Amino acid sequence: MKEPLIVLENINIRTRDRSILSIPRFELFPGEALGVMGPNGAGKSTLLKTMALLDLPGEGTVFYRGKKVTDHSVLDVRRRFAVALQQSLLLDMTVHQNIAIGLKLRHRSRREINMKVEHWMEVFKISHLARKQALHLSGGEAQRVNLARAMILEPEVLFLDEPFSALDFPTKVQLLKDIKQVVSKTNTTTVFISHDLTEIKYFTQRMAIIMGGEIKQAGSTAEVLSEPNAYAASFIGEWSRLLT
Ligand SMILES: Nc1ncnc2c1ncn2[C@@H]1O[C@H](COP(=O)(O)OP(=O)(O)OP(=O)(O)O)[C@@H](O)[C@H]1O
Ligand SMILES: [Mg+2]
């Protein structure tokens, strides 16, 4: 078994009156695509933010390549990750500028930035939109820009929080195909939250079902879908049976 890339240990995240995430131990392995499913409010985005080190947990430890992430190291580790959310949160500038911004902030040379922006626009088939204002894009176009903006950072881990949920079916299918090809070619570890079983089935090798802030089942995607435990079955069982 490969060494895990990220390990969560004894994580507890609470609001004033209740627990929103409670994870004794959970591992993310290098090169895998992990799916996360669960009902609304289950804690999926909280789990993603914790793994991506956007929020440091009040209680518990995150390990990255076997080393405990501390206040001191968190920025350095977070720089290896990229996150794409359902809302693409593009800035009021051109597509080209939006994709370039991450590398600009890292003080890369103009030549390198332009080369990489061209490359990632090509990969995501948005070269023709380079000079367009990002706020005028359609949802599908904006999500392509969003993904190019994430991938240009050459992240070790790409975190996707329902990035395709607002897209029409053909747009979603094409984008899923493209991003799957990109992450496999670049060997990028991916965490993918989705409410859509078919997306999870297509995109991931392993999946976790989270309910009430707890991981109720984790295993290979094929196994969880064909043999859901009682918790998972209550959430995906019927749909899963219809599909398999
Ligand atoms: N900063 C916060 N302060 C208080 N409560 C929060 C905070 N963030 C999340 N929560 C609560 O924690 C629970 C889990 O939220 P989370 O966003 O992780 O759910 P989710 O599984 O991503 O849901 P969805 O499918 O709707 O996106 C919810 O009940 C939410 O209201
Ligand atoms: Mg969420």
Automatic annotation (TrEMBL):
<dbReference type="Pfam" id="PF00005">
    <property type="entry name" value="ABC_tran"/>
</dbReference>
<dbReference type="InterPro" id="IPR003593">
    <property type="entry name" value="AAA+_ATPase"/>
</dbReference>
<dbReference type="InterPro" id="IPR003439">
    <property type="entry name" value="ABC_transporter-like_ATP-bd"/>
</dbReference>
<dbReference type="GO" id="GO:0005524">
    <property type="term" value="F:ATP binding"/>
</dbReference>
<keyword id="KW-0547">Nucleotide-binding</keyword>
<dbReference type="InterPro" id="IPR017871">
    <property type="entry name" value="ABC_transporter-like_CS"/>
</dbReference>
<keyword id="KW-0067">ATP-binding</keyword>
<dbReference type="InterPro" id="IPR027417">
    <property type="entry name" value="P-loop_NTPase"/>
</dbReference>
<keyword id="KW-0813">Transport</keyword>
<feature type="domain" description="ABC transporter">
    <location>
        <begin position="6"/>
        <end position="237"/>
    </location>
</feature>
<protein>
    <submittedName>
        <fullName>Tungstate transport system ATP-binding protein</fullName>
    </submittedName>
</protein>
<dbReference type="GO" id="GO:0016887">
    <property type="term" value="F:ATP hydrolysis activity"/>
</dbReference>
<dbReference type="InterPro" id="IPR050093">
    <property type="entry name" value="ABC_SmlMolc_Importer"/>
</dbReference>
